[in-house]
Amino acid sequence: MAGYSAERLSHLFNALNDGIIVMDQDRIIVFINPSATRMTGWELGDWIPYCRFCEMREVAAGEERCFLAGQTDVSYFESELPTKDGAYVSVGMSRTFLEPARDAESRDMVIVIRDVTRERQAKELELRARLNRMTLEVQEQERKRISQELHDGVSQSLYAIDLGMEHLKRHAPPRFRRALDDLRAQVKRCSREVRALSHTLYPSLLFDLGLSAAIRMLSEEMSTDRCRIEVDMNKEWPGGDLGGVAIHVYRIVQEAVHNAMSHGRARHIRIRMTCLEVCEVEIVDDGCGFHTDEIKWLPGYGLKNMRERASALGGRLEIESEPGQGTRVRVVFPNPLG
């Protein structure tokens, strides 16, 4: 390379994240950069053993055991390279050859190695996140189906029963009318519970009017004489259709509020929602609280579901709590509108 001194090239090779190993025909290292040494422990002058694949593969008489050295049409593959301390590191290896010196009969082989462990872990995390999102989508579709069946099936049947008992009451003897009134009252209560369950399973308001309206309606529905729920939402909070973001945020808030009321016995819950460069949803209650190091031992699927939904948002979930000091649930995720 014109204009590049040996010193500058050496500095370049030493600065690379990929490992570079140059070995002669006897597999003696004649050059190795720091990255390769960090990955393998091998140093200048060491004899480098074969990778695990080459060690174990069957070779014909006279065939080169080193797969990359003996191939003309393959210059990259992945295997496990032995380290100096006897362990193995998973690497991707690229091979080329240096032109031999005038008085040399063989060419030195250059191997560029890259630790693929992190790449595999990243791919596994990406796959896990994708499966998580697909699982949550299937769950929401199933919730929607059950909600519609409750609304179109059970609710309509209860309404028909109520009409039938009203008709019976008009023709029943007076001694049966009070009993029919009691039965109709039970049917109406059951109908209200079915409607509430249907809404919990599939909050149609979320998809009709958006997340802001759905959160406010949730707070109104869940507020009681014992527990008051307030919603504080900044003006920058994105409106409109947020797609999958909306349902994940809604479910996290729904779960956090339910936990605060059912388990924390909270009297006041505050939901704060802000969205600038990143979006943040915070649910703070004045309930009994708990030790956060006991979270992994707590029963139920709720906390796990909240974490999975935060992950599906590309964000993180934080839970802060102390016995007698209430609980703070916070999820932070990228602004879906950029």
UniProtKB/TrEMBL annotation:
<keyword id="KW-0067">ATP-binding</keyword>
<dbReference type="InterPro" id="IPR035965">
    <property type="entry name" value="PAS-like_dom_sf"/>
</dbReference>
<dbReference type="GO" id="GO:0046983">
    <property type="term" value="F:protein dimerization activity"/>
</dbReference>
<dbReference type="InterPro" id="IPR050482">
    <property type="entry name" value="Sensor_HK_TwoCompSys"/>
</dbReference>
<dbReference type="InterPro" id="IPR003594">
    <property type="entry name" value="HATPase_dom"/>
</dbReference>
<dbReference type="InterPro" id="IPR011712">
    <property type="entry name" value="Sig_transdc_His_kin_sub3_dim/P"/>
</dbReference>
<dbReference type="Pfam" id="PF02518">
    <property type="entry name" value="HATPase_c"/>
</dbReference>
<dbReference type="GO" id="GO:0016020">
    <property type="term" value="C:membrane"/>
</dbReference>
<dbReference type="InterPro" id="IPR005467">
    <property type="entry name" value="His_kinase_dom"/>
</dbReference>
<protein>
    <recommendedName>
        <fullName>histidine kinase</fullName>
        <ecNumber>2.7.13.3</ecNumber>
    </recommendedName>
</protein>
<dbReference type="InterPro" id="IPR000014">
    <property type="entry name" value="PAS"/>
</dbReference>
<keyword id="KW-0808">Transferase</keyword>
<keyword id="KW-0902">Two-component regulatory system</keyword>
<keyword id="KW-0418">Kinase</keyword>
<dbReference type="GO" id="GO:0000155">
    <property type="term" value="F:phosphorelay sensor kinase activity"/>
</dbReference>
<feature type="domain" description="Histidine kinase">
    <location>
        <begin position="145"/>
        <end position="337"/>
    </location>
</feature>
<dbReference type="InterPro" id="IPR036890">
    <property type="entry name" value="HATPase_C_sf"/>
</dbReference>
<dbReference type="GO" id="GO:0005524">
    <property type="term" value="F:ATP binding"/>
</dbReference>
<keyword id="KW-0597">Phosphoprotein</keyword>
<dbReference type="Pfam" id="PF07730">
    <property type="entry name" value="HisKA_3"/>
</dbReference>
<dbReference type="Pfam" id="PF13188">
    <property type="entry name" value="PAS_8"/>
</dbReference>
<feature type="domain" description="PAS">
    <location>
        <begin position="5"/>
        <end position="48"/>
    </location>
</feature>
<keyword id="KW-0547">Nucleotide-binding</keyword>
